[in-house]
Give the backbone structure.
Amino acid sequence: MAKDKTLFTCSECGGTTPRWLGKCPHCNAWNTLVESVAESSAPSKNRFAALAPSTEVKPLSEIEAQDVQRTPTGLDELDRVLGGGIVEGGVVLIGGDPGIGKSTLLLQALDALQRQSHTTLYVTGEESGAQVALRSRRLGLDGSQVKVLAEIQLEKILATLDALKPAIAVIDSIQTVYSEQLTSAPGSVAQVRECAAHLTRAAKASGTAIVLVGHVTKEGALAGPRVLEHMVDTVLYFEGDTHSSYRLIRAIKNRFGAVNEIGVFAMTERGLKGVSNPSAIFLSQHAEPVPGSCVMVTLEGTRPMLVELQALVDTGGPSPRRLSVGLERDRLAMLLAVLHRHAGVACMDQDVFVNAVGGVRISEPAADLAVMLSITSSLRGRPLPKGFIAFGEVGLAGEVRPAPRGQERLKEAAKLGFSVAVVPRANLPRKAERGGTELFPGMTVHGVDRIEEAMELARSLA
Ligand code: TYD
Ligand code: MG
């Protein structure tokens, strides 16, 4: 059999070249060529052979549909993002900043599964076995039966998986694993991709669920090629401010459940504890309302959550800055333009900073109205009224568009004692007429159609 030859494959178009080039000759993308192993030597080396077993062609109706078997980990918030539990042969990629709690959470999950008599394996490439043991003591998992393997060589890891046949294995982290078949260094794109492909194949073939821990680059993307995200069944991201104790896990992709579902944890002395009622944890405690602060209700997955948005508008230099933490910066620039054009609020010569409290990331446009109200409040130095919330998407024409499931959001805010709400008119229940309406106990809800109307209303209420 011919010896494997090294090839360079483009991570964008999949084209190959025999030597490394800065620019892909097929699609002209820069810096996309990564080393890979030539597979032409033997047909059995087809990388996706195990993923696509050869079967006959059948109509859809004749294929027996079976629900996937899920094993709950016992950590409710993790099960929630996974869509109910781990799936046999499923591959999960979990990313997040260093020190956010990935290893802690997975060790807790493995211990919980081991206690339900599932065989588990924790492969550590970043820490020694002793360090893992130390962490498990700290977590109060004394006498834990989780099997630990301190190994970074792919072939040995695969052999152990084959021999032990665990129900679930954690690879912490995929960036430390390397294959002898490639000459590039561990952590390089080629190694990460090749190792992940082999592990995925092993998972599908053996039924072992595999969790890959992935590092995150400074830009917040998973280090390694995007192809990693395509290869696995589920992609989870850990987010949160390492300075606060709350951590969020978000499902970015899930072949076995809903995306955008989030799990909320609090980091304690004894590891991560699930927070089953997270609605009020992203509010800071102000005794009296302060300028530049507006609370919104965001709906992540199935649960509404109240999040405080803060803005600071201050005199800037010749090219004023627009910075946002937890919100999209492009969207902020757009909202500032709408604010100027339709509500006459000018921030052209001002620095504008916005922040979502608690390290939470908000991607839904329903935050628009609250962002604009907090900016105006900071610019004018006037706080919004006590117990105020707002949500709604704002369009380029200055219209305020409804947010999905507005009733649920309002209900949650009323439950937490908020008393005034400004929301898109379409989110008002049909019965409600113009002006203040008491639909929820103790809460007055105002519906608006346009941004200028919302600004005027906020000014008259303050
Ligand atoms: P870790 O799981 O090692 O993070 P990652 O694998 O994502 O890099 O988490 C480490 C942090 O968590 C560290 O700063 C200490 C803190 N921690 C606690 O607060 N309580 C605990 O019980 C444990 C084990 C860690
Ligand atoms: Mg770790």
User: Anything to note?
Assistant: The chain has a mean pLDDT of 87. The CA atoms of residues 385 and 461 lie 6 Å apart. The first strand starts at residue 6 and ends at 10. The two ends are 80 Å apart (CA to CA).
